[in-house]
Amino acid sequence: MAIPFARRSFLGTFALVFLAIAALFAVDMFLAKTEKAESQVEAARLFEQGRGLMHRGENVEAIKRIKDAISIERGNRDYLRTLAQVQFAAGKSADAESTLTELLQSDSTDGLTNLIMGRVMVKEDRFAEALSYFHRAIYGHWNENAAENRLRVRFELIDLLAQRNSKEELLAELLAVQDDAPRDLRTRSRMGQLFLLAGSPARAVDVFRGVLHDAPANANAYAGLGAAEFARGNYRAAQRDFQTTLRLAPDDQATRRRLDVCNELLMLDPTLRGLTPAERFSRSLKLVELTADEARCIGSNTSPELQRLLDKAGTALKAHVSAAHESEVSESNLDLAEQLWQARKGCKSPPAVDSPLALVLARLAQ
After folding, report:
1. Within 10 A of 269 (CB to CB), how many other CB atoms are there?
2. What are phi and psi for residue 56, nearest 5 degrees?
3. Backbone angles phi, psi at 234, to 5 degrees
4. How far, in Å, CA of 68 to CA of 56, rounded?
5. Distance (Å, whole) CA 313 – CA 244
6. Please, which contacts does 193-197 make with residues 24 or more away whose CB atoms are closer than 8 Å?
7. How many angstroms separate the CA atoms of 350 and 353, rounded?
8. Closest residue by Cα to residue 180 from 202, 165, 158, 161
């Protein structure tokens, strides 16, 4: 059956119109894509300009360029993160926080964004919040090199805790990273120092001994081991480690000072094993003499109780004690030295807590 001419004409016209519409749509799509591509190129150009300015420290101009890039390509997370970084570098912490908040609202697990926010919180002295963001960065997602970035963030947090002397938090982070940390000698030595700073000298000893197993002539490891043994109260072991350090590194003045303290402490300490009764008695007298000198710093405001202790010290220092009574009198002298040490707390400038005298008296008080 033949199709009427009018109907064929209509179908032909319709087909032509459809093809025209399709062609226009294709052209429009092509132009839109071209415009979008050109816009992205322009945004990328502005962004790179901004990054260049940021690296040169021209942060105010960098902010302008990066904002111009964002106005063209809204929602680009790389641009927004970089904007937050340059705002932070420019001292505009509130602006950086606002930018980062916008990013975290759309993805709270973004590792890099959480890291930058943690740094902003540190700058604003909001340390508890900073810790939270650092942990989110550690456990968040990273687009590339995830394990490496998480380890880097962990060590940044560790350095921050070390600077603040936050011992408990520092120890927790060190234990968490210990198995994943690089095994090179420098990192291991650093871990030993950090364990010591975190108040865990026993773990520091293990780390430094491990370093010395692999590098027997490592002076820094011997110095660290000596400091760790000293912190544990193993003064003879510390003395040997410090002496070894100086044989390997004679110009190490810090270790030389530590060895001097160690030597003086070992000459004062009446609790060391192997001392004869006469040696222990002599040391007890020396402690009475030194603590009495410290207590006299109070001057003319001496209380009756302190004056009584000072008089008692004067008597003890002049007394003649037979060998048979030296052990008994040594105990009395040590009690007197502890009482004088407590009395000297009224001094304006008490001796440092790590002075040999202070360490010996602390040991006696245990």
Report:
1. 20
2. -90, 0
3. -90, 75
4. 19
5. 39
6. 193/224, 194/158, 194/162, 194/170, 195/171, 195/228, 196/224, 196/227, 196/228, 196/231, 197/162, 197/165, 197/167, 197/170
7. 9
8. 158
What's the token pair of residue 330?
A: 């040594």
Show pLDDT as tens, one digit a residue, over the chain (366 residues). 555 656 556 556 666 666 667 666 555 555 545 544 556 677 788 888 888 888 898 888 999 989 888 888 887 889 899 999 999 999 999 999 999 999 999 999 999 999 999 999 999 999 999 999 999 999 999 989 999 999 999 999 999 999 999 999 999 999 999 988 999 999 999 999 999 999 999 999 999 999 999 999 999 999 999 999 999 999 999 999 999 999 999 999 999 999 999 999 999 999 888 899 999 999 999 999 998 888 877 565 667 888 888 889 999 999 888 888 899 999 999 999 999 888 876 666 666 777 899 899 888 887
Domains by residue range for the chain, with CATH: 182-268 (1.25.40.10), 277-365 (no CATH)
Cα 361 from Cα 319, distance rounded (Å): 23
State pTM to two decimals. Answer: 0.79
Structure tokens at 93: 């912490």
From residue 100, alpha-carbon distances to 71, 81, 125 in Å are: 17, 7, 17
The residue count of the chain comes to 366
CA torsion angle 314 315 318 320 (round to 10): -160
List the beta bridge partners of residue 110.
Answer: 141
Give phi and psi for 228, each to the nearest 5: -70, -45
